[in-house]
Predict the structure of diacetyl reductase [(S)-acetoin forming].
Amino acid sequence: MSENKVALVTGAGQGIGQAIAERLSKDGFKVALVGRHIEKVQKVADEINRNGGEAIAIKADVAKRDEVFAAVKETKEKFNGFDVIVNNAGVAPTTPIMSVTEDDMNWTWGINVNGIVWGTQAAVDAFKEFGHGGKIINATSQAGVQGNANLTAYGSTKFAIRGITQTTARELAEFGITVNAFAPGIVKTPMMEDIAHEVSVNAGKDDEWGMAQFSEGIAMGRLSEPEDVANVVSFLSSEDSNYVTGQTLIVDGGMVFS
């Protein structure tokens, strides 16, 4: 990796993506924050810059290949380098099997799975252009390691991401590129609160009940903070993980053991 370390994080406007961008900035990376809502990523980028980091905000929908490639191009031109991509953007609809629609599947797969494929392709082009390897880090989920009820659309994408991580790790190793995934459990984020709310509504219960359904069975006895996940991504972005590839690191406080 060059001394001028550059990372791009998708879905960086809130929650886990925001925590990852902030942590990588602290680790010395120049960071590009990508999101569908420019005002959200701009706010996070401004905060990083105020704190002495170097960040830019880029509007892009990861489901659209051209927009992902354009975001990587803008990043490498602005920072004159490209070392790490964190394909973090994702959506998490709650879909009992009998209510899953074509739109549910196409929308969820378009963002969660296709977005990772486009991010991988664009990153590989950039790494090769600069004549070095790099690190591709994909967001899967505890729900992509073990099946969770009512998450057919979401869970299927997260299982797929683990497969893509393994296949691309084998393909790209010869170029000095590692590919790994992180699998968060139940993280206190706006998206998680939305999921818990939907589950509660479906069951005719309150939001607190919904969140409790997810937190029971965590060995550590607490929900995850976004920073817990960012710590693991920091490791996967660093030289300490140079001999790790094709792996999914489960960061769930002890829900799934494999």
